Amino acid sequence: MRQVSITLALDGLDADAVEAACFEAGALALSYTDRRDDAILEPAPGEFRLWPATRLQALFDAERVEPAFLAALAARIGCDVARLEIAAVAERAWEREWLRDFVPLRCGENLWICPSHHTVDAPGAIVVKLDPGLAFGTGTHPTTHLCLERLDAAPPRDGLVVDYGCGSGILAIAALALGAGSALAHDIDPQALVATRDNAARNDVESKLETFAEAEALDARAAGRADLVLANILSGPLCALAPRLVRLLKPGGELVLAGLLAEQEAEVIAAYAPWLTLQRSAVRDGWVVLVGRTPDPALLERKPMRDRRRPRGALTIVALLSLALLLQIAHRERAALATAPLIGAPVAQFYAAIGRPIEPSWDVRAYAVRQLGAATDERPGFFTVRASLRNAAPRVQPAPLLRLRLLDLEGHTVAQRDLLPSEYASNDALLLAPGRRIEAELSALDPGPRVVGFEVDACLPRADRAPVCSADGIASGVRAP
Questions:
Q1: Does the structure show a pLDDT above 70 at 384?
Q2: Lowest-pLDDT choice from 114-118, 142-146, 385-389, 465-469
Q3: CB 272 within 8 Å of CB 242
Q4: Domains contained in the chain, number
Q5: Considering the domain boundaries, does residue 184 fall inside one?
Q6: Distance of CA 320 to the CA centre of its chain
Q7: Ordered DSSP codes for 303-327
Q8: Which tens digits make up the pLDDT trace of 435-448?
Q9: Strands, E, within 141-275: which ranges?
């Protein structure tokens, strides 16, 4: 059957209405393309996004397309008939056409991603069979390609690998092909998990790969056991998932993060700073891969020192004085040391053990609180305030205590309630990366109509003292009538 394509720029038109009009007129198929070069990052499951400048193309039976048909279609769409571009479509084997430009892809020294209609004859080639599908991940995107090159350069021999946000499962399957003992894959998109299992079966590794639809189930299975965790997603989720991804690693395990742009690198590094140090491993076309390892206690054990003569006399005195000076400086700066990556936890534990717990030097003035409204709760006798909280500090800080004060007409406090982070924030939000914003709901017993306003303040607890609050970050509002 001969076909004709009718192409239309969607400027100012509703895409759903145009699509419905085309199908009502007998369209055989529809497709959307970008008329410029606007990037659309990975959508959420079930979400469909269009480009700012989108072109719609509809295929019709050529025998139906005549001037009267075009005029009727334009009227149905609500545009001038001159906007419809008509072109004949050559007859092709469409079921194979989509594979035409997908050829074997070399990733590093030995690893190859190969579609089913090709073969790889390179000496020593380790081949992963994969065709493009509905799930993200074929190796052609720079972030995926860089992760595959990292796997090829440092194969996870016999280890447990976690592919977080697996898409097609390409990273987990490549790790198994390179010698990993087992792999666990998680994605929030059910279609991705189906694709991962199908691709694992195609590569004869399905017995070594397990998929998880729920992150909690993956946590229970892999916490503290993974030799390698791969997360090729986006910078925002990478920051939010920092505690969860680190908890999956065993001591000395490696974390590989991708899906972030070069300008997002510092934010992601800061989000993981409390647990490990991330460093740039590779960059391509503006996309960055970060790599870090959790501390291995075995590597921190003191190594035997070579036999040497002990310093005597003046040298001994200089050494002792230097040590005393360093200890004095460390003691004076103990609050700052307690917040530093790697050494912070041991320092805090030491001072707690000797009965002098450290109060970390968090910046309470860096919490920006903004009220989002208040109303009487649906539950009788409760007054609820919604507020947003942002960490404006250049480093990671803990979620603060939030203090809600209910005020009368003269500004006097009628009632007050302090809410701990665990009462208004999820586990993933107990540590706030620089610039991260969360929303909270704060409820208190409603003293009645004399309450006409409220204030929300961020506070930090102090040992044996009242919390320190920030008047700079305070948010206030009036009671809704």
A1: yes
A2: 465-469
A3: yes
A4: 4
A5: yes
A6: 48
A7: PPPPP-PPP-THHHHHHHHHHHHHH
A8: 898 888 888 888 88
A9: 160-164, 182-186, 209-212, 226-232, 249-261
> 141: domain CATH number?
3.40.50.150
Q: Tokens in use for 273?
A: 């700073």
Residue 173 has pLDDT above 60, yes or no: yes
In the chain, % of residues over pLDDT 70: 79
- CA proximity to 276, closest of 330, 229, 318, 207: 229
Whether 243 is in a domain gets the answer: yes
Is residue 58 within 8 Å of residue 6, measured between CB atoms?
A: yes
Residue 36 belongs to domain with CATH number: 3.30.70.260
Q: Which CATH number is 380's domain given?
A: 2.60.40.10
Residue 248 lies in a domain: yes
CA dist 359 and 362 (Å) reads 9
* Rounded CA Rg of the chain: 30
Same domain for 147 and 281, yes or no, is yes
Whole-angstrom distance, CA of residue 172 vs CA of residue 211 = 10
pLDDT at 136: 59
Taking residues 6-29, what's their average pLDDT?
90
Statement to judge: residues 144 and 268 lie in one domain: yes
pLDDT tens for 318-333 read: 778 777 777 777 666 6
d(CA 468, CA 397): 15
pLDDT at 219 over 60: yes
Domain that holds residue 182: 105-290
Tell me the average pLDDT across 388-398. Answer: 85
The Cα-based distances of 129 to 116, 184, 335 in angstroms read 6, 19, 53
More confident residue, 240 or 473: 240
Number of H helices, E strands in the chain: 15, 24
Structure confidence at residue 305 (pLDDT): 38
Task: Indicate whether 370 and 354 sit together in one domain.
Answer: no
What is the model's pLDDT at position 169?
A: 92
The rounded distance, in Å, linking the Cα atoms of 161 and 181 is 8
State the chain's maximal CA–CA distance in angstroms. Answer: 107
Q: Is the model's pTM score more than 0.70?
A: no
Alpha-carbon distances, residue 87 vs 62, 93, 95, 234, 466 (angstroms): 10, 18, 21, 39, 76
Dihedral class, residue 102 (left if φ above 0, else alpha if ψ from -120 to 50, else beta) = beta
Residue type, 39: A
The dihedral sign for the CA sequence 344, 347, 353, 359: negative
